[in-house]
């Protein structure tokens, strides 16, 4: 693909599936997007190039040192701040945004105080790294010895929240402060990995949650002077949202937008980076996203009505995200029918999640 005749090249730190989907979201608009492996050779960066990232942290290489500290790296200051759960949670506290009670876990002398002031059961999380359920421990007084001495100072302890369900919102901020938001999305995580997302404007709390989530994410993006797409994952407890995680990038829970909205989250990110005219986001039907985790490709998936398969071309390994399937249709019964078809084409460990998604649509 030749460089764009209209726009500067957008370089992406990281060449996984998110960078890949940014690349082909840019093609129809003649936006040239080049995802880069961390170990790719250094090159002369065009003066007007724009740099973004598909991941919060990256290994130190000559290329990441060049791009990660370049003046054209949009939101450069945000990635390190949000990649560290200590500074991320500190930001939420500074902005008086609801999140689970927490503290930095420095040494074992804190345990009694933590169980009294934070919670009798806590989730201990690595400050950096550790995603999709890795680097996290559920701890009470009985198993506190599971947190070994080498972890102290490198983890935070959050109150264990018995939430009703999980949601997320994906939105974007433009250079002039204008924002665009997708509908609040209901998510199912299993073993710490997102497995399903469902979007439906008819959900009982949708309107109130949308208003609450947009206000919270707006406050964060404004404080950071952020430009581009950001995702916010929340626990729902009664009528209240508690922020769980922030991601300064396109996000797995926004993949449904590729089929369920006229502008996908990937295109939206590029539009914001390049400051392009962008209408309000409109969804026209309920949507479902099925994450494909450690599952071999099945050609039968291609014979699913009102669906879109994204296969990442990665080696299939247990617990690895290798693709996803989006489904969207104005009639929820049609989506349910296609999910029932997929049920026969997906392994046993998908069945409970399919039940969850189908129940959400009823």
UniProtKB/TrEMBL annotation:
Signal peptide residues on this chain, from the entry's feature table: none
Residue numbers binding ATP: 85, 125, 130-136, 158-161, 166, 244-245
Involved pathway(s): Purine metabolism; IMP biosynthesis via de novo pathway; 5-amino-1-(5-phospho-D-ribosyl)imidazole-4-carboxylate from 5-amino-1-(5-phospho-D-ribosyl)imidazole (N5-CAIR route): step 1/2
UniProt catalytic activity: 5-amino-1-(5-phospho-beta-D-ribosyl)imidazole + hydrogencarbonate + ATP = 5-carboxyamino-1-(5-phospho-D-ribosyl)imidazole + ADP + phosphate + 2 H(+)
Enzyme class at the top of the EC tree: ligase
GO molecular function (one): metal ion binding
One example of a Gene Ontology biological process annotation: 'de novo' IMP biosynthetic process
Keyword Nucleotide-binding tagged: yes
Keyword Magnesium part of the UniProt annotation: no
InterPro entries, per the entry: ATP-grasp, ATP-grasp_carboxylate-amine, ATP_grasp_subdomain_1, PreATP-grasp_dom_sf, PurK, PurK_C, Rudment_hybrid_motif
Listed GO CC annotations: cytosol
UniProt keyword annotations, A-Z: ATP-binding, Ligase, Nucleotide-binding, Purine biosynthesis
Domain of life: Bacteria
Membership in a protein family: Belongs to the PurK/PurT family.
Self-association state and partner proteins as the record states: Homodimer.
Role played: Catalyzes the ATP-dependent conversion of 5-aminoimidazole ribonucleotide (AIR) and HCO(3)- to N5-carboxyaminoimidazole ribonucleotide (N5-CAIR).
NCBIfam families: PRK06019.1-4, purK
HAMAP family: PurK
Name of the protein in its database record: N5-carboxyaminoimidazole ribonucleotide synthase
Organism: Haemophilus haemolyticus
Organism lineage string: Bacteria, Pseudomonadati, Pseudomonadota, Gammaproteobacteria, Pasteurellales
Gene name of this polypeptide: purK
